[in-house]
Every structure is written in C-alpha cells, then in structure tokens.
Amino acid sequence: xxxxxxxxxxxxxxxxxxxxxxxxxxxxxxxxxxxxxxxxxxxxxxxxxxxxxxxxxxxxxxxxxxxxxxxxxxxxxxxxxxxxxxxxxxxxxxxxxxxxxxxxxxxxxxxxxxxxxxxxxxxxxxxxxxxxxxxxxxxxxxxxxxxxxxxxxxxxxxxxxxxxxxxxxxxxxxxxxxxxxxxxxxxx
Length: 188
What we know:
- By secondary structure, the chain is an alpha+beta fold.
- It has helices at about 5-15, 25, 35-60, 100-110, 180-185, and strands spanning about 65-75, 90-95, 95-100, 115-125, 125-135, 135, 145, 150-160.
C-alpha cells in the first residue's frame, strides 16, 4: 500500500494483472490518515503482547498482564473531546486521579454530572497537556451517562514473574497485527 503514487506507478498498476487501484478516500473513509496510523500502531502493540503471551504459554513461563494506560482510539465529532483530544493521546489523569485502566476512566467520568467541568491530563508524543472539558450525555437507549466523546483502548504490558525472562520487541515503524506469529517464533 502506497499512500501517494506517481504517474509511472499508476500506469504500471493499470497494466499489471496483479495490481489493484483504489482512491485514497476509499482506503481512508474518515479522511484521517493519522488516526489510521495510530490504530495500526495499537494493533502492532496488541500483536506484540499476544505474541509474548503465546510464547510464555508454550514455554510455561508464568506471567501477568498489567494495565499501563488508556489511549484515545477515536474522538466523536460534536462531543467535548473534539479539538482537545486526538486519537493516540494517552489519558494520564482525570481531576488529578491517575488513569491506568478503562475502568479508572469510567469511574472518574461517572463521578461527574452532565454539564460539569473536568480536568484531563494528556500525553501526546512526549508532551504533557492539560485541558478542561464539560461532561456531556453519551448514554444510549435513554439512559444518560456522563462522558467526553472518546473511544478508549486499554494498553497492557505482559510481565513475567521472573524478570530475566522479560522480552522487549523493537518493531520500528511497522504497524498492524500481521507480525505476531513471527514475534512469537522469535521469542521461543
């Protein structure tokens, strides 16, 4: 998949029986390549965790899974998070309380009332930011629920009981889930 193509590549794809041509809008229906790249990054991290767990299971290495934070996967248009939180931002704290799990975030949001302001501390790349948002109704089926309009993903680490069995994967700029099998085989 190439994000941008030139005339030579396009003509080559037209002539090739093994190539398919798609419009960018068809591949990124929301128009947001950055959000797509962040989803791919999350998929890669999840793939790595699953590969480590599979290898530990096969090798009978005891481990535990620990929640290490919540990442914004998507921001709903028209809700308070729009323009303040971006997909890929880590939710570090809400009203001064540290957020490590989705349940932590949900609990902090449930403490507030619709129309009430909250302080959200974020990590975007290496920068830490703080924003104030007003809780809005994000409930469904007539059941009100206070929220800010994000879909959160719980990020986890796989930690062996024996620290010497620890695994570190340096995948570089690769995204997506497809390398999981190779990671597991390499770990074993």
